[in-house]
Amino acid sequence: MMFATPKQLRARGIMGMNRRNVDYVAAHNPRHLYPLVDNKLKTKLLAEQAGIAVPKLLGTLRYQHDVKGLHSQLLPHEKFVIKPSKGSGGKGILVIAEREHDIYFKPSEEAISHEALERHVTNILSGLYSLSGSPDIAMIESMIEAHNIFDAYSFEGVPDIRVIIFKGYPVMAMLRLATHASDGKANLHQGAVGVGIDLATGKALHAVQHDRPIYQHPDTQRDFSELQIPDWDKLLPLAAACQEVTGLGYMGVDIVIDKNHGPLILELNARPGLAIQMANGTGIFPRLQQVEALSGEQRTPEQRAQISRELFGQQP
Q: Superfamily assignment of 7-52+146-312 in CATH?
């Protein structure tokens, strides 16, 4: 196996962790703003106040004694998602796609008892999945029903689109697709597929799994060359608008496309990872430099999204 040298990586515009942390995360994200994105409940409430579309919040559980009321909270809902407010990397997220009385079923059709659900919520509240291990809040959200176009590209899970935003401009995007290896979660570290997306068109460019190039979904065998993200003209301005909501200069915006409601903001990240560069087959650093070279003129999210499409489109 051939490995690129640091010089070769720099020549391709690949940004490393140190530069990301010092020149972009630390330099453009004031520390006092981190709680706005590290806490998913705060993020959701902020987005709702700004008129930005998000999955519907069905309920919250804040204290251990709230667990005894879980059954009544869930009773009206056949499908839902339970997640930790301060979790990361997809940990602690439980998706329920169906229920029969007090038996719940994951998208994989694995059955879960109500008692097991209560234990999961108890673990969330105790901080098992939170970033710092501190006590957490369990959120209950409506389950996203993925756009039909993804039926052939994702295994037992809802795909999401990660867009890197710098100074309000989208600079790179990738689609994350669940696989059998990732247990139906769109998390690259757990074996999901990352598909680089052309900012101009919303079409797939490259795809990787476990940092290796692939050309078809490992479970469905569908060719990625046929994939194009729906509602791309709505999705990019939605991602760009998150800069005004949070005040962060450099962040990742995770978006899902619901078949009934269109693009919805799932969560925001003040320290987005760098695997997006591998998925796109190109480095992000030159794009960040191009944004820094733009004039400081005030522009709307729609204008910034259009400029990004013109600057960073990769397909002819």
A: ATP-grasp fold, B domain (3.30.470.20)
